[in-house]
């Protein structure tokens, strides 16, 4: 094997190891998943309430709901429904909805991939909400 091939192989190996180290140290936490999913769920819920009651009444209802039982980023009530499995290089968020376990988010390198508001609204309509 030539010296050039060894050097290229070493560079590729070191880049791969560097990527794995970066993924390990930037794996999103359970709290990150819950905060992200809470934000998306609240956006979908606000849309549903505004659609049904109008933006003025909907905004008032959502404000009262946040203060009383829905919580905010510091007090997230979605935690009972969300379970996160951390695989050290990436993490997977599961949502228990009516006894069914759904994968709802995947986190890697400080980014969480999750359904958007439209997907949540579609899922809500499937469950008759």
Give the helices and strands, then pairings:
Elements: H1 3-25, H2 30-53, H3 55-70, E1 82-86, E2 91-97, E3 100-108, E4 111-113, H4 117-126
Antiparallel strand pairs: 1-2, 2-3, 3-4
Helix pairs in contact: 2-3, 2-4
Question: Can you put this structure into words, describing what you see?
Answer:
With 129 residues, the chain is of the alpha+beta class. The chain contains 4 helices and 4 strands. The chain has a 4-stranded antiparallel sheet, covered by helices on one side. Helix 2 runs antiparallel to helix 3 (55-70) and helix 2 (30-53) crosses helix 4 (117-126). The termini are far apart.
Give a short synopsis of this structure.
The protein has 129 residues and is of the alpha+beta class. Helix content is 57%, strand content 19%.
Sheet having the most strands:
4 strands, antiparallel
How much of the polypeptide forms β-strand, as a percent range?
15-25%
Distance between the termini: 65 Å
C-alpha-based Rg, rounded: 21 Å
Instruction: Tell me the overall shape.
Output: elongated
- Strand order, sheet with most strands: 1-2-3-4
Q: What is the count of DSSP helices, taking H or I runs of 4+ residues?
A: 4
Q: How many β-strands, per DSSP?
A: 4
Q: Share of helix among residues?
A: 55-70%
Average pLDDT? 81
Features:
129 residues; alpha+beta; four-stranded antiparallel beta sheet
